[in-house]
Amino acid sequence: MATPIRTSHAGSLPRTKELIAATAARKENPQDVPGYEALLRDSVIDLVKRQKDLGISIPNDGEYGHAMANEIDYGAWWHYVFARTGGLELTGAELWEQPAVRSEPGNIKLTSFGDRRDRRLFEDAYTDPNSGITTGPPAQFPAATGPISYTGQEQVQRDIANVKAGLEAAGYAISDGYLNSLAPGSAARIENKHYASEEEFIWAWADVLREEYLAITEAGLTVQIDDPSIAENWDQINPEPTVEEYRAFTQIRIEALNHALRGIPEEQVRFHTCWGSWHGPHVTDLPFADIVDLVLQINAAGYTFEAANVRHEHEWRIWEDTTLPEGKHIIPGIVSHATNVVEHPELVADRIERFARLVGPENVVASTDCGLGGRIHPQIAHAKLETLVAGAELASTRF
Fold it and tell me: Where is the Cobalamin-independent methionine synthase MetE C-terminal/archaeal domain (predicted)?
């Protein structure tokens, strides 16, 4: 009997035009959009049903509760949390205009987003609007000007209620569903004007975000921790650090996250990392082999990472030498968010099979590299999920 390969995705799915328009209007004046909450709820219910119809095994709300007011948006997974956190103030500085910071041996620091090493190496391409590189529209980011606190209780309960309604209507079990939430390390990449050190700021975020993790898991859902920073930070340090320095820098973020997850059953946690989802060269990305053991330290049952991205597809081989701990599973990206080409089901099956033969088909959930929402056209996103499921069905016949 064939071992069925389960399917999922990284979280964000394309919003409807109606939801994007309503969200944009709410940014100007929430009172001008009567019926928004009902529209959001109905949109989530419809989306979960569409995932069921496609054959997705492990669905979510498409991150619809994380406000996206533009069809192209690379940051909703991240900046949603700032509206749920006290102690922050908008600084007026756009993300790409932050001043550059330089590191010293033994004291590595994040530089500005506009001063990434990949961006410097391909500066002409990054600044050419016709190059095909996409990073999304500029966005203002806040600074911490006082003690931070979680204020998103109402929003997260709304997200929970909406996805539960969708799961029940589509015939999923509540335990099949998940909601995305930000990691302390990624949250702490904004400017800190209050805490005495970067480490203190990260641990403060761990206490804040724990409230969201608890709300999601106590509702019977799985929480997906989104933390591109674990891999992506490497490109954002100038000059390039040693791998040993970077691992020590990252270890603090791992420990803070595990602190935030304390007591939460691992089977209700999955962890996502990537090398940043912008469409660019990525030649300064850190090899996954340099941090995979750190990722496996995180108190989660599942680990989702980019594996269809052409800069990282070859890294499936690290599982020849990396032992997946008992009771854990991997959720590799099998279709990419970074190309409009829809992968053939045979290619999808081949990619799945590589992982399944190394860690066991029961320990593989076929997924997307990153969120599809805000990055590719909805029609193409739908086709990619269709081919993901078709390829998983084909791969299942091979075991």
Answer: 198-392
